[in-house]
């Protein structure tokens, strides 16, 4: 896999992208060009394909047909570190904040989890039980800290 990363100077191109789940066509022949450096918001009705589009762009799913390009390179060839934060909390309410952040981590997970909590200003909350906004930050910590976080695309709905 090519380890090159997307940068601010790379346009995204979607050519005739279709995504189907069984008999349900969610995206049909979508053509989209996002120029280099552009910020894009994806908005629409519930069930309109916003999350599907974002999963395709993140490389978490493959299109049924069509192509996704970063410049002239297939998008799937340059994605190797995708993280995803779900729209709803995916936490274990009976576990502490630090234990939830550490889910899926191996080895010295506790130190890595504490660093992630410190990165979002929650270093003193590790032993507590998550609630409200802390749950969102906790879920973001589970997605993994990044030295150079990209601008996010937010799916409304």
Number of domains: 2
Biggest β-sheet: count, sense, barrel? 4 strands, antiparallel
Tell me how many strands there are. 4
- Contiguous runs where pLDDT drops below 50 for at least 5 residues: 146-157
The CATH class designation of the largest domain is Alpha Beta
Average pLDDT for all residues: 78
Query: Total helix count?
Result: 4
Beta-strand content: 15-25%
**CATH topology annotation of the largest domain:** Rossmann fold
Q: Please tell me the CATH architecture of the largest domain by its name.
A: 3-Layer(aba) Sandwich
Strand order within the widest sheet? 2-1-3-4
Question: In which range does the helix fraction lie?
Answer: 10-25%
CATH superfamily of the largest domain: P-loop containing nucleotide triphosphate hydrolases
Global outline: elongated
Oligomer: single chain
Q: Kindly provide the radius of gyration, computed on alpha-carbon positions and rounded to a whole number of angstroms.
A: 18 Å
Order of helices and strands: EEHEEHHH
* Gap from first CA to last CA: 34 Å
Structural class: alpha+beta
